[in-house]
Amino acid sequence: MIEVSASLLRGAVFLAGEALECLVTLRNPLPPDATSASSEMLAWASAQIHCQFHASESRVALPPPEEGRHDVQAEKETVFVPNRGERGQCILSTPPKILFCDLRLDPGEAKTYSYCETLPVDGPPSFRGQAVKYVYKLTIGCQRVNSPIKLLRLPFRVLVLHGLRDHPFPQDEAVAPSNPFLEDEDGGRKKDSRLADFATELLMAATSRRSLHLYNISNSGGKVGSFCIFKTVYKIGEDVIGTFNFSEGDVPCLQYLVSLQTEERVQEAFQRQRGQPVSYSTHARHQEACLHTARTSFSLPIPLNSAPGFSTNIVSLKWRLHFEFVTSRAAGKTRSVAAASSSSEGPSEATLWAGVEQMEVDTLSWDLPIQVLPTNPLLASYVSQFSSTNSLTI
């Protein structure tokens, strides 16, 4: 029996283009004083990254397998098939890397191997929607002699920053002194860190620009109010903040609702039914009664575990703010009710104010598109649902 464990060195969230590093440890759990006959042998172990795609049969019409894209692993002609037994199809994979061959472990002995691979930049981001799913996994395969292959899988999340390859990467390292005695791994790790820092700078530059966006809210009865927002480009984890001004409105607004939503749309060529409806998901909402309110505001957080906007040949994901306003057809009026009361000085009358029992209302809806970009993968790893470690026994 051999215990196999795998651990990602830096959480379970990565940016496309970064290097994923994993330590694979194999250990013979028997006590060291056991006989040498208790040594264990493994024929080989290999590791590979792949992206698994799954589509809802009721929403997406995929071409037949013979007309579509062939299985990536089948074309490589190896016995190591990381996606064996999984639903969907493999749409992206890295070349398999052999960790070792003919490994012998004595009782109590353990050996650790390092796996490093750069994540492809041309793949989709991790996404679990109503129509499609894109799931990334690191699969480690081990085999004893004359035994079936055992697979150890580590799911992880990938964020894609579109246009990262189009920006010139800083080349100031070219003039820096180099040490030929240092291993290339240090240089690769430094470049990987610089890529994450460079992506963070691009995200900061794109989401820090502020410009006043002012919108008038009106219906057939006149102006309801105005809405103000200072930017329409955000990154995951930020708060969407907006303000309302109802003081200059001609039509009273009784209540409003703001929802932060994603719009998942299947591309026309892959729709199961022509003109099928778009799927919406609500991630945050704010509702408030605002009659006689001059100014108010809302703040909606973009969840760190949500997917940024993206588009593939099968599906596209966009973000929006959905507004719903409940307005009155007539100015709200209160009514007074006279009530008698008595005191030591004699009977008197007091006035009580009561709200309107019935009111004719109209509903007004409006959608404002916004852009949501990825965030720092280190920040997103704090709320990741994936564990950075996994193990099995063979």
Question: What does this entry look like structurally?
Answer:
The protein is elongated. Strands 2, 4, 5, 6, 8, 9 and 10 form a 7-stranded mixed β-sheet that branches. Strands 13, 15, 16, 18, 19 and 22 form a 6-stranded mixed β-sheet that branches. The protein folds into 2 domains: 3-204 and 377-393, Immunoglobulin-like; 213-331 and 359-373, Immunoglobulin-like, CATH 2.60.40. The chain has 394 residues and is mainly β. The protein has 3 helices and 23 strands. 8% of the residues lie in helices and 48% in strands. The longest helix has 24 residues, at 184-207. Residues 67-77 and 171-188 have low confidence and may be disordered. It has helices spanning 72-76, 184-207, 377-380, and strands at residues 3-8, 13-15, 19-27, 40-55, 89-93, 97-105, 110-118, 127-128, 132-143, 149-159, 213-219, 222-229, 233-235, 239-245, 253-266, 279-289, 295-301, 310-311, 315-328, 335-343, 346-354, 361-373, 389-393. A hairpin with a 3-residue loop joins strand 18 (310-311) and strand 19.
Mean pLDDT: 83
Count up the helices: 3
**CATH fold call of the largest domain:** Immunoglobulin-like
**Shape-level CATH architecture of the largest domain:** Sandwich
Backbone CA Rg: 30 Å
Just give the CATH class of the largest domain: Mainly Beta
Question: Which ranges are low-confidence, i.e. pLDDT below 50, for 5 or more consecutive residues?
Answer: 67-77, 171-188
For the record, the count of structural domains works out to: 2
Which class best fits the helix and strand makeup?
mainly beta
Q: Strand percentage, roughly?
A: over 45%
How many beta strands in the DSSP annotation? 23
Q: What is the H/E string? A: EEEEHEEEEEEHEEEEEEEEEEEEHE
Distance between the termini: 6 Å
Q: Give a quick account of the main beta sheet: strands, pairing sense, barrel closure.
A: 7 strands, mixed
Helix content percent band? under 10%
Organism: Pogona vitticeps (central bearded dragon)
Protein name: RAB6A-GEF complex partner protein 2
InterPro entries: Rgp1
Pfam family, one: Rgp1
